[in-house]
Every structure is written in C-alpha cells, then in structure tokens.
Design goal:
There is one protein chain. The protein is globular, with a radius of gyration of 18 Å. The two termini are about 15 Å apart. The longest helix is centred in the first third of the chain and has 11 residues. A hairpin with a 5-residue loop joins strand 4 and strand 5. Strands 2, 6, 7, 10, 13 and 14 form a 6-stranded mixed beta sheet that branches. By secondary structure, the protein is α+β, with helices and mostly antiparallel strands. It contains 4 helices and 14 strands. It has a single domain, classed as Aromatic compound dioxygenase (Protocatechuate 3,4-Dioxygenase, subunit A, Sandwich). Helices cover about 10% and strands about 25% of the residues.
C-alpha cells in the first residue's frame, strides 16, 4: 500500500497533501466501488454526491457459529455471526498524510505511531493517552461499525481490529498539526465482537479547506497485526452526511468549518468524487444530544 512519506509542517491539512497521496495510491487501488442499493443511492443524492452504477454483492440471510472470541492481544479474526441481506467491499482510500500508524513522520519529527502506545485500544478517543493530557472539544459523536466478509456471504467478522482517526473541530490532526503535535487524541483501536461490531466515542470532525468532512480508518485481521499501517487489509474513509455537518458547523467551537464546508461537495472532493455510497453512514441525533453514525464495512477476508 502506497502512503505519503513526506514530513508536513503546515498548521493545517491541505488539499495538495491529500491529493498527492491519493494520486499515487489509486495507481494500485485494489477494490471496485459497488452500490448497496436504491436506498443508499437516495441517501447519496440527498448529499449532492455522485456514485457508481455497479451492483452490490448479494447474499442469502443465514446464521453462523462463533469460531473465535476476538478479544485480547494476538487474537485472530474469524468469519462468524449472522449475515446481512447484501454487502459490498468498501473502497480503498488514501490514509492521507496524518495517519500516525508508523508509516511516516509526525509534526515533531521521527516516526509517528500511536499504534505502539499503551492505551491505544480504547472506546473513548476524545482525550490523549500515553502521557499526553489534551482533550478534543466538539459535538459528541458515536461511530458504530460492523465488519462483514464480502468473500463469505457477508458473514460477520469477529476479532478484527479497526484503527480510527480524524481531525479535531479546528481541522487539526494530533501528532502532526501545529499546536497539537504533542497530543494523540482522536485516535484509537477497537476489536470487533462476535457480531463484527465495534464502537468509538469521539467528536464530530471539523471541515478543513479542500476536503469533505471525513473519518479515516484501517482494518486489521487481528489486534496483534495492528502495530503498523503496513499490516492492514483495508484503508478507507467515512464521508460525514451533509445535513449533520451543516448543523454541527453552526457550533462556535468549529471555527472556519462552515466556510470551508460551503466550498466543497462530494462531487468535487478528491477522495469521494468517484462515489461515496458505501462510505456514507446512517446518522441520527442533534447538536445537543450528540450524533450516532452507523455503517456496515465490507472487506474481503
């Protein structure tokens, strides 16, 4: 997997950084974007984005048996649980220049790798860990993912690890951006349960100039493998729904996000312009109560 190995010292992420990484990554893009169905297409149309007309992989609903616990260091992922009506492989996307997964240097120099720090396996990723003490502020967001195997009738994937990260309300990435190079908040790892499900408690990401609001994640076959981005089996991104983003960016803590958001669309974004159907989570909630974003993530395992 190709990744941006350049050191970045700019205070905020930029379109040029992400575009440079994306153009190199897509030379070897491994997966083809496919539709989940008419309902997903309608959701994408509501956000103003384009899509891909290929059909999704369909499976008959069945019930499987758990073959692994999926807990503890070194656990091995397994195909298990109930299948869904249909699933498709989520597109491979760039990890961007700020992964903090051991594949490039951080803002303070040296290899940036949150995955090797004690405490990275956690549900609540709003605060820093491993000696750092900062906390990201913003509108609360719960991210719920379900991992399913597109190579095995959409069966749930237990014991797989997901590393998830994103920018803060001001569009800054911990470990890289000016002012937060000593922090590692909004980064964490979770292991999927017997139903292939895992949850992160975080904040809604800000919108920086040139990119649609998004969340990065990497999928690993086991927790033991989640020590470097070079070991992952899938890298992708969530595209945050437009209506929720518009509401969140009215919050005063998201300085600059509203203006940046007004200048971008799914169709013009350098990652999601080829179709974001499989990357748009279902979202519920409000600024006052917080939001819950739910997405089924199909990988071939």
């Amino acid at each position: 997997m190709l990744r941006d190995m350049h050191h970045h010292s700019h205070p905020h992420p930029s379109l040029a950084h992400d575009l440079d990484t994306l153009l190199r990554l897509r030379q070897g893009r491994r997966d083809t974007l496919r539709w989940l169905g008419a309902g997903a297409a309608a959701a994408l149309a509501g956000c103003g984005g384009g899509g891909d007309a290929a059909s999704a992989t369909t499976a008959t609903s069945t019930t499987g048996t758990t073959t692994g616990t999926g807990t503890g260091t070194g656990s091995t992922g397994s195909t298990t649980g109930s299948t869904s009506a249909s699933c498709a492989t989520i597109p491979e996307e760039t990890a961007g220049p700020y992964p903090g997964d051991g594949t490039n240097n951080g803002g303070s120099g040296g290899v940036a790798n949150a995955l090797t720090l004690s405490g990275v396996v956690r549900n609540d990723i709003t605060s820093s860990f491993g000696g750092a003490t900062g906390t990201a502020v913003g509108v609360p967001l719960t991210v719920k993912l379900q991992l399913v195997n597109t190579a095995s009738s959409c069966a749930s994937l237990a014991g797989f690890a997901v590393y998830l990260w994103h920018c803060d309300a001001l569009g800054r990435y911990s470990m890289y951006s000016q002012g937060v190079t000593a922090e590692n908040y909004l980064r964490g790892v979770q292991v999927s349960d017997s139903a292939g499900e895992l949850t992160f408690s975080t904040i809604f990401p800000g919108c920086y100039d040139g990119r649609w609001p998004h969340i990065h994640f990497e999928v690993y076959a086991s927790l033991a493998r989640a020590t470097s981005g070079s070991n992952d089996i899938k890298t992708s991104q969530l595209a945050m729904p437009a209506a929720a983003a518009g509401a969140v960016y009215a919050d005063a803590r998201y300085t600059g996000s509203s203006a940046n958001f007004s200048r971008i669309s799914l169709a013009s974004d350098n990652v999601f312009s080829d179709g974001a159907t499989l990357q748009l989570p279902t979202i519920t909630g409000s600024n006052a109560a917080g939001y819950v974003a739910t997405l089924q993530v199909g990988v071939s395992a």
